[in-house]
Design goal:
Layout: H1 2-22, H2 25-44, H3 52-71, H4 76-99, H5 111-135, H6 137-161, E1 165-167, E2 171-175, H7 176-199
Antiparallel strand pairs: 1-2
Helix pairs in contact: 1-6, 2-3, 2-5, 3-5, 4-5, 5-6, 6-7
């Protein structure tokens, strides 16, 4: 499982690098849209609305928002969308502490809210990554690389060394060792990137 995840991660990273470096903004926006439409499919799996038909409708609606956003990315509403998304994300981090206190036999809570957050967070992620690309293609690849490294090394260290649960009622598979492994890998990548850029 670890080997398969590593190989798929490398293939995906190389594919994204080629698109970012050797195509134009339209293709990058399309690549990001495809990845996040897949993310929309997975997002609905976090809720109790995760029937195949609803997942298709939700993913299609997110794709429509991306299309509208492509033609309106420079409007003020795009900036406000990002500000709202950041504010809501901080709010979610606080509310997760209360969600963790739910009993295992209780019914799922906050389902409409989770659904609505997907409609805000997924377009905001697409727009923010597109803005990073517009600043410089390297910024987008750096951000994506940070996420991929954090996820991969957190998974690897959690699987091999994980003993202490991080948040068992939220995600039973996550461990403190996984978090520390991901943070250490990201730190090393950031320091290496800074050193390379300084040498240029």
């Amino acid at each position: 499982m670890i080997k398969q995840r590593f190989i798929s991660g490398v293939v995906l990273a190389l594919s994204m690098l080629l698109v970012i470096l050797y195509t134009n903004e339209i293709w990058v926006a399309l690549m990001l849209a495809v990845l996040l439409v897949i993310g929309a499919w997975e997002w609905l799996g976090l809720t109790s609305y995760d029937t195949p038909a609803r997942r298709i409708y939700f993913a299609a609606f997110i794709a429509l928002i991306f299309l509208i956003g492509w033609f309106n990315q420079d409007l003020a509403v795009a900036r406000y969308w990002l500000i709202i998304a950041v504010a809501l994300w901080y709010m979610v981090m606080v509310l997760l502490a209360f969600y963790e206190t739910a009993h295992s036999h209780s019914s799922p809570r906050w389902q409409p809210q989770i659904l609505m957050l997907g409609l805000i967070f997924l377009p905001a992620a697409w727009l923010s990554m597109l803005k990073l690309y517009q600043l410089h293609p390297g910024w987008l690849f750096y951000a994506l690389a940070l996420c991929a490294i954090a996820d991969s090394f957190a998974y690897l260290s959690g699987k091999t060394l994980g003993k202490h649960k991080l948040a068992p009622r939220l995600s039973p598979g996550k461990t403190m060792e996984g978090v520390l492994g991901g943070m250490l890998a990201v730190l090393m990548f950031a320091l290496l990137s800074g050193w390379i850029l300084k040498m240029e």
